[in-house]
User: What shape does this take?
Amino acid sequence: MEKNVLVVIGVGGMGLAIARRVGSGAKALLADFNETTLTAAAQQLRGEGHDVVAQKVDVSDRASVAALADAAAELGRVHQVAHTAGLSPVQASVEAIVAVDLLGVAYVLDEFARVVAPGGAGLVIASMAGHFAADSLPLEMAKALSLTPTEELADLPFLAQLPDPGAAYSIAKRANALRVQAAAGAWGARGARVNSISPGVISTPMGAEELAGESGERMRQMVASSATGRLGTPDDIAAAAAFLLDPTRASFITGTDLLVDGGAVAAVRWHLGG
Assistant: This one.
């Protein structure tokens, strides 16, 4: 019997938690650009009894993403795809964020739409930053981010005018949710679904870097003012991912974004005057 394949792209805190949460009984294909992180995640999951293979991927390179999709299809029935890889504003330049956080997601949506099995599901990790960007993003820019062919996406004029990595990150993460909406039809033609999750401030190494950066004080204020009053955990995101990837519980959910932020966006909009 052909085995179901779970693909997790980006195996840091959230990716590893998702693999652990939904990978039981599947062939898990883990992928990351950082080979040290990838090897450690694969060893950890194998030690817990998971059936794991690992492959390096550069999501900013379409050929690398296509090779990963082909490898997944060779392993079995591509049943679940979780794309968590990304860069934060404290880690990278505008150009790198556009290449990884924007183009990387577009490549994954395109290439895995070729191989996902009927009844399968995909998931992209966006960010609550995209929800803030949505409030001020002109409709024409939103349409361009949604519908521009992937090979032309990096040439959108307004991307060359982004002033700093924070702005690039917000636009890229808004684009993630928009392109998931736009891709739902192509995935649906395969009998599959695709959604996104927008995490808030999550307790991961990347989250720690952001809290220590220029926007850290603002982020701490958001967390303190939120309804839950705490940082999120990778397990919080994995629980949401498990729901959206489930073929029974979420069978009528596709092309949508789930905000998992502990109430931070609501706090900014209604209490902090954001």
Remarks:
- The chain has one domain: 4-270.
